[in-house]
Each structure stands twice: as C-alpha cells, then as structure tokens.
UniProtKB/TrEMBL annotation:
Pathway this chain belongs to: Organic acid metabolism; propanoate degradation
Top-level division of the source organism's lineage: Bacteria
Function: Catalyzes the thermodynamically favored C-C bond cleavage of (2R,3S)-2-methylisocitrate to yield pyruvate and succinate.
Descriptive protein name: Methylisocitrate lyase
C-alpha cells in the first residue's frame, strides 16, 4: 500500500536528482510554491523541481522582502513543502541570515529539513528584492567566505550550493562575471545571475562561466521574460519562476473578494473556483481514507486473534 503521509522519495535521492538534472542537457524548471499544496500541483504537472522564494515567504507573512524573515520561518515553510513532494526543492536563503557561520548553520538546518539545495546572495544584509533599486553588494571576498562556509557545512555532497550575484545592475555584467568565477572557485555548484536585462546578457554570462547557471524569470522585473526553450538553447541549466503562483492566486482572490463585496454572493464565481473534488484529488483524500481503513482493519484482525 502506498504511503499517503509524505513523499516517497528520500531527501538524498531528491538531491541526487537535482544535481543530475543540472548536469543534464535539459533545463530544470522550478516554479515557486507558496504552500505545500502548490508544490503538489507542480509535481503533478511535470516540472523538474520546486522553488521556495524568500520574497514569497515574506509576502505570505505580509512582510516586504527586505530581510525581515528569520531562518526558522524559512526552514519550517521549506520543510512543509519538501515533505509533500518527490521533486527536489531549492530554497532562497537570502544572505545566509548573518555572517559566514550563520550561512553554515543555514545549510545544516535546511539539509535536515529535506531540502535539495539553497542559494546565497552577495547583497549587504539586510537585503532587498533583486529587481528593485537601492541594493548594495558586499566585497567579493566577503561573499567568498559565505560560500566557503556553506560548502564546508554540508554533509551530503549532493546538496547544491548556489551562489547568487546581484552585481550586474550595480557594477556591470563584467564585474558580475568576475564575481561568479570567484564564487565557483570557492566551491559553488551553481551560479544565479540576478536581474540580467536581455538575452545577450545571459549569453555573455554563459560564455564566461563554466559551471551550471540559473536564470530568474520573475514578472515585472528588470529581465526580459525568456522562455525555458530559449534559456536552454543559450545553455542555462535551471530557471525559476519564483512569484508566479502567488501572483496568480492573489489576483484571483482579490477579484473574487471584490465581487463578493459588490454583489453579496459568490454564486457568480463558482466556475472560477477549484472544485472540491479537484482539491480532494490533490490532497489525496482517498489514499488517506484507504490508509485509515487499512490500519483499522489491521487492528481489528489483531484483536480477534
């Protein structure tokens, strides 16, 4: 009988899958999940992984993305999401929540939570959203220490350490490339190139950096929205859609609530709602019922012996 209470795939196997995917010839698509139910949907549709965005964790708590969330908050939400999916989960760990020692502890806690990898960024702490102005980056040497601490702290060698650079918009693409190379030399497995404007910039980065690269296709930001096929042709290894599901959900929720406020009823919204039967399908309601029946029958059989 299948187990309904958690993902069937071990954390170690998820990490191996992420690493293998990054080294394959196929781009790994990781939509953002703002809760475990969305992660379940991401897996069902057939994506290669799940992303947990720091901006989304902040927004879900009604906070701006300026480094206000704590390591424990991010870890717990990530644990909840990783528990329900067989896909590898990549987590936005901001600046590592402090100094290099904090980055090391972040790796340890997220590894314990069943996460497949994380990314650390080279912004000054507290950070800002990568597609807003007013950012500042730390010296390259400081970020190198963050990366080295993270690499040294991991116990599973397949746990992916991704280094994000926000330097392109501040110091130029060439400077960001130099930083990326330094982070790779420090042991990063994957480079996240934040807020590159156009395809030509992604191509330049790909030509200059030898390790796997991740692209951020967030809406309403500084980057052109390139398709996964285009990014794969350029040579990128992974792409995230960090806030897409939250933006879709919040837009629909706001429109629906305004109609209820205006009309006094949700009757006109039913065709835009997820049906109860579909929700039960996603949460595997029948499998829980089967599990419960099996345990009850097993206990009854034992009682008759």
């Amino acid at each position: 009988m299948s187990r309904p209470l958690a993902a069937a795939t071990s954390a170690a196997d998820k990490r191996a899958a992420l690493r293998a995917g990054l080294n394959s010839n196929r781009i790994q698509r990781l939509p953002g999940a703002f809760n475990p139910l969305v992660a379940t949907l991401i897996q069902e549709i057939g994506f290669e992984g799940v992303y947990v965005s720091g901006a989304v964790v902040s927004a879900d708590l009604a906070l701006p993305d300026i480094g206000l969330t704590t390591l424990s908050e991010v870890t717990e939400r990530s644990r909840q999401i990783a528990r329900v999916t067989d896909l590898p989960v990549l987590v936005d760990a901001d600046t590592g929540f402090g100094e290099p020692m904090n980055a090391a502890r972040t790796v340890a806690l997220l590894e314990d939570a069943g996460i497949a990898g994380l990314h650390l960024e080279d912004q000054v702490n507290p950070k800002r959203c990568g597609h807003l102005d007013g950012k500042a980056v730390v010296p390259t040497a400081d970020m190198v220490r963050r990366v080295r601490a993270a690499v040294a702290a991991r116990r599973d060698p397949n746990f992916v350490i991704c280094a994000r650079t926000d330097a392109a918009g501040l110091e130029g693409v060439d400077a960001a490339i130099d930083r990326a190379r330094a982070y790779a030399d420090a042991g990063a497995d994957l480079i996240f190139t934040e807020a590159l404007p156009a395809a030509a910039d992604f191509e330049k980065f790909r030509a200059a950096v030898s390790i796997p690269l991740l692209a951020n296709m967030t809406e309403f930001g500084k980057s052109d929205l390139l398709s996964a096929r285009t990014l794969e042709a350029i040579g990128y290894n992974a792409v995230i859609y960090p806030v897409s599901t939250l933006r879709l959900a919040m837009s629909a929720a706001e429109a629906g609530l305004r109609e209820i406020d205006r009309t006094g009823t949700q009757a006109g919204l039913l065709d835009r709602m997820q049906h109860r039967s579909r929700l039960y399908e996603l949460v595997r309601y029948e499998r829980y019922a089967e599990f419960d029946s099996h345990i009850y029958d097993f206990a009854s059989e034992r009682g008759r012996r």
